[in-house]
Design a protein that fits this description.
Layout lengths: L1 H7 L3 E5 L5 E4 L1 H7 L11 H4 E3 L9 H7 L3 E8 L8 E9 L5 E10 L1 H15 L9 H18 L3 E9 L1 H8 L1 H18 L5 E6 L2 E7 L4 H15 L3 E3 L2 E3 L2 E9 L6 H17 L5 E3 L4 H20 L3 E10 L5 E12 L3 E3 L1 H8 L5 H16 L7 E6 L1 H4 L4 H12 L6 E6 L7 H14 L2 E7 L6 H6 L4 E4 L1 H10 L2 H15 L3 E4 L5 H10 L3 E3 L9 H7 L20 E11 L2 E10 L3 E5 L1 E2 L6 E5 L5 E10 L2 E6 L4 E2 L5 E2 L6 H5 L26 E2 L1 H7 L1
Parallel strand pairs: 12-13, 15-17, 17-18, 18-19, 19-20, 20-21, 21-22
Antiparallel strand pairs: 1-2, 1-6, 3-4, 4-5, 5-6, 7-9, 7-12, 8-9, 10-11, 14-15, 14-22, 15-16, 23-24, 23-27, 24-25, 25-29, 26-32, 27-28, 28-29, 30-31
Length: about 700
C-alpha cells in the first residue's frame, strides 16, 4: 500500500538521521527532481534542498532541522536545479525510548504549479504586466524606502518623470494593439539608455518614472535625460506601421527639491510640465521659480500675435560659404524678436519659444515672405535659406504660399532654399508628395535638414527631389571630438550625396582642424562661427556692395557664449558679506552685474543665483558700477534654454548647523554668516533706487 501511495503522487516520504543526512526518500520525489536516488541518500538535507522563496522571507531549512521541532509548509527546490520543481516539506522529529533525537520523518508534495501561480500573482501586484517594469505601487514603495534610508545616511537621490509626446496619436491612428507594442519597445529602450543602478517604472498610460540613487550632479543627469530623449525619438517599427514619438523629462533631486516622496514627485511633475510647455522633446530641472517661469513663457507665446501685427520680428542671416572659393553663396534666415519689455530675444531663444506654439505656422509664413523680400536686394548669385516648420509644411496651401512669397518679391525661384526636416515624412503621405512635387515644379531648391540626427532614411532621399543634404550639427560636433568613426560616417554621407547628385552642407563649424577635415571629405558648403555669427541686413548690404562677399575663416572665432537678458536681483558674497546687486545678463561662462562702486579687476565673488546655486566668479571687467564676471566653473543648460549650476548647497550641510533637512527655498541662499562684517564695496545711488 505504501508503494502504491508513493507511486500515485498522493503521498511522498523522506527521513533523515540525527546528523541531518537523508536516509530515505520516495523514488517519485527523486524522479521529479531528476536526480538519481543514489546521489541523494547519505547527503545532508541542507545540501540537497534550498529555500524556494527568492526574497529570503520564508522559513530556513537549516533552522527548522536544527531546532528538532515539528515543521510544515516549507517550500524548497533542488539546490542542483533551482529553476525546477518546487516541493512543500513537512517534518516530525523522532526520538528513541530514552529521549535521544534520532532524526526526522516527513512528507513532501509537488506544489510547482501552485507556487508559480502565486509567484505570478505577486509579480503582477508589483510589476507592470505589459512592459515588465515596476508598477506605480512598487515605485512608491521603493522611493519611500530609499528616501527614508538615504535621509539617515545623508545620501542623494534623483527622480525623473517621463511623458511620451504624440503617443495618443499612435493609439488613435494605428490602434491600441500598436500602442501596447510601442510601450514595450519604449520600456526596452529605457533599460538600454539607463546603464546604471536605478529603478524604472511605468506609472500607467504613457507615464514613466526613474529613480536614480546617489546622484545630484545636474550635468550628469542632463546628459542621461538627453540620452533618453534622443533614444525615444528614434522611429519604431510596429506590425501596423512605422511611427515616431518623442519624450519630455522632468528631474528633481532629493533632498534639494523635496525630502518626502510626495514632495520630490511633485517637484519632478512640475519640471515635466515645464518641459512639455517649453516645446516638448526636452528635459527640465525643477526650480522653485518654475510656476512663475511657466506663466512668463505662456505670456511670451501669447505676445507672438502682437509681435507679428506690430512688426516686432526681424531676421538675422548666417552666411553659408562655398568651400572652394570661400565666397558667400547663401544666407540662412533666423527669426529674432525685439520684445518691448525684454529687449532682443535672439534666434536660439526665439526658436524655443515658438517651437510647439500655435503661432509657429504664422511665424513661418512671415519668415519665408520676409526672407524672399530681403534676398531680392542681394546679388543674383546669392540664395536665401529658410527653415520650414513641420506644421507649416503640412498645411494645404504651403506650396501656394511659397509661390506668392517668391513672385511678390520678384525673386527667381532657384534663389530660395527651403530646409525641410525629415519629420514632415511622418505626416499625410499624399499631402507631402503633392507639396514636394509642386515645389520641385516651381523651381525652388530643397534641402533635407538635420541629416543624421537619428532617423535618417534613404527612402526620403529617393522619394523627394532634394538638391542638398544638411548634415546634423550634433554629428559634426561628435566628429570633432572623436575624429575617426564619425569622420568615416561623414565621408560616407558626402559620397552618398555625390552619388545622388546632391550638395552637402555642414554647419556649426568653429575649429580650423574640423574645417580642414570637412573640406578634405568633399563637403561643398560650410556654415558656422568660424566664418560669421548671424548678421543683420545692414551688414549684408555693406559686405556685398562690391557684388561678392568673401570670408576668410578665423581661427579665433568661436560661438560666443549666449547671454540671456535677465534683469533680476541677486546676491554676491565677498569676505563673508553679501551684497544685493542687479544681474543684467547671464551666460554659461559669466554674468554682468550692476550696483557696486569701485570694484577692482581680479576681485572674487561667490554669486548666489538662488535655490542653493553658488558660483565662484572673478571680476574681469569693471566700469563704474558695472562689472563683468567670469565663472570658475561654467553653468550648464537646464534643458529648456535656461542655465543652472551643476551642484547646489546640500540641505544636509545646512542641517549640520542645526537646521532641519528641508527642500531648498527658491530665493537666495542665506547660509553665509555675516555677523558684524564691514562691507568693502559701496552701493551706487542707482542700485539703491532699484532696490527700493
Amino acid at each position: 500500500m505504501l508503494d502504491e501511495l508513493e507511486e500515485s503522487g498522493l503521498g511522498w516520504f523522506w527521513a533523515s538521521d540525527d546528523c541531518g543526512n537523508l536516509t530515505y526518500l520516495s523514488g517519485a520525489i527523486a524522479s521529479r527532481l531528476d536526480i538519481p536516488l543514489s546521489e541523494l541518500l547519505g547527503h545532508p538535507l541542507t545540501a540537497i534542498f534550498t529555500a524556494a522563496d527568492r526574497d529570503g522571507r520564508g522559513k530556513s531549512l537549516p533552522l527548522m532541522l536544527g531546532a528538532h521541532k515539528p515543521f510544515a509548509g516549507l517550500s524548497v527546490r533542488a539546490a542542483r536545479n533551482p529553476d525546477g520543481v518546487v516541493l512543500r516539506l513537512a517534518g516530525q522529529p523522532a526520538f528513541s525510548t530514552n529521549g535521544r533525537f534520532t532524526g526526522f520523518r516527513g512528507t513532501g508534495a509537488d506544489i510547482t504549479d501552485e507556487y508559480r501561480r502565486e509567484e505570478e500573482t505577486e509579480r503582477l501586484a508589483r510589476f507592470d504586466s505589459l512592459t515588465g517594469l515596476s508598477n506605480r505601487h512598487r515605485m512608491a514603495h521603493q522611493l519611500d524606502s530609499m528616501l527614508t534610508a538615504f535621509k539617515a545616511a545623508r545620501r542623494n537621490c534623483a527622480v525623473m518623470m517621463l511623458d511620451l509626446d504624440r503617443f495618443k496619436h499612435v493609439n488613435d491612428t494605428l490602434g491600441h494593439a500598436a500602442g501596447d507594442e510601442l510601450l514595450k519597445q519604449v520600456a526596452a529602450r529605457l533599460n538600454r539608455a539607463l546603464d546604471r543602478d536605478c529603478e524604472i517604472g511605468r506609472l500607467g498610460g504613457d507615464e514613466f518614472q526613474v529613480v536614480l540613487p546617489d546622484i545630484d550632479d545636474r550635468g550628469v543627469l542632463g546628459e542621461l535625460a538627453m540620452k533618453i530623449v534622443t533614444m525615444l525619438r528614434q522611429p519604431y517599427s510596429l506590425e501596423e506601421g512605422r511611427c515616431v514619438i518623442g519624450a519630455s523629462v522632468g528631474i528633481a533631486i532629493a533632498p534639494h527639491d523635496g525630502v518626502t516622496r510626495e514632495e520630490i514627485v511633485r517637484s519632478a511633475d512640475l519640471a515635466l510640465y515645464a518641459a512639455k510647455n517649453g516645446g516638448r522633446g526636452q528635459y527640465r530641472f525643477f526650480s522653485g521659480e518654475l510656476e512663475n517661469e511657466t506663466i512668463f513663457r505662456r505670456r511670451l507665446e501669447q505676445d507672438l500675435g502682437a509681435a507679428l501685427r506690430e512688426e516686432q520680428l526681424f531676421l538675422r542671416f548666417e552666411p553659408i560659404v562655398d568651400a572652394a572659393s570661400q565666397s558667400v553663396c547663401a544666407l540662412e534666415a533666423h527669426v529674432c524678436w525685439h520684445h518691448p519689455d525684454r529687449g532682443i530675444i535672439d534666434e536660439e531663444e526665439f526658436a524655443k519659444i515658438v517651437e510647439g506654439s500655435a503661432m509657429s505656422v504664422d511665424v513661418g509664413r512671415w519668415a519665408i515672405a520676409e526672407a524672399c523680400r530681403r534676398a531680392a536686394e542681394w546679388p543674383d548669385s546669392v540664395r536665401v535659406a529658410a527653415n520650414v516648420p513641420v506644421a507649416l509644411f503640412l498645411t494645404d496651401d504651403f506650396a501656394e504660399l511659397v509661390e506668392r512669397s517668391v513672385d511678390g518679391a520678384g525673386l527667381a525661384p532657384g534663389r530660395l532654399e527651403l530646409e525641410i526636416s525629415e519629420a514632415v515624412f511622418f505626416g499625410d503621405t499624399n499631402l507631402v508628395d503633392r507639396t514636394l512635387a509642386s515645389l520641385f515644379k516651381f523651381g525652388v531648391r530643397l534641402t533635407l535638414d538635420e541629416f543624421g540626427s537619428g532617423y535618417s532614411s534613404l527612402a526620403y532621399l529617393r522619394r523627394a527631389p532634394f538638391d542638398a543634404i544638411k548634415i546634423d550639427e550634433k554629428l559634426i560636433a561628435e566628429a570633432e571630438r572623436h575624429d575617426s568613426r564619425e569622420m568615416g560616417l561623414l565621408r560616407a554621407i558626402v559620397a552618398l550625396a555625390g552619388a545622388l547628385q546632391m550638395d552637402t552642407i555642414a554647419n556649426g563649424l568653429e575649429s580650423a582642424s574640423l574645417l580642414t577635415a570637412l573640406t578634405e571629405c568633399g563637403v561643398r558648403y560650410l556654415e558656422g562661427p568660424i566664418f560669421s555669427e548671424p548678421v543683420d541686413h545692414h551688414t549684408i548690404a555693406k559686405e556685398m556692395a562690391g557684388g561678392t562677399w568673401k570670408i576668410e575663416p578665423g581661427c579665433d572665432r568661436t560661438r560666443r557664449a549666449r547671454r540671456r537678458t535677465v534683469f533680476r536681483k541677486i546676491q554676491v558674497i565677498h569676505d563673508d558679506y553679501a551684497y544685493e546687486v542687479t544681474m543684467r545678463n547671464l551666460s554659461r561662462t559669466g554674468a554682468l552685474i550692476e550696483g557696486l562702486a569701485e570694484v577692482p579687476k581680479g576681485t572674487q565673488f561667490v554669486v548666489d543665483l538662488g535655490g542653493g546655486q553658488l558660483a565662484v566668479a572673478t571680476v574681469i571687467r569693471s566700469n563704474g558700477d558695472v562689472q563683468g564676471l567670469e565663472f570658475e566653473q561654467s553653468l550648464i543648460e537646464d534643458g529648456s534654454g535656461g542655465l543652472c549650476t551643476r551642484n547646489r548647497v546640500s540641505p544636509y550641510a545646512l542641517a549640520a548647523a542645526g537646521t532641519p533637512v528641508a527642500p531648498l527655498a527658491p530665493g537666495s541662499f542665506h547660509g553665509i554668516d555675516q555677523g558684524g562684517t564691514v562691507p568693502k564695496f559701496g552701493y551706487t545711488a542707482h542700485a539703491r533706487s532699484d532696490a527700493g
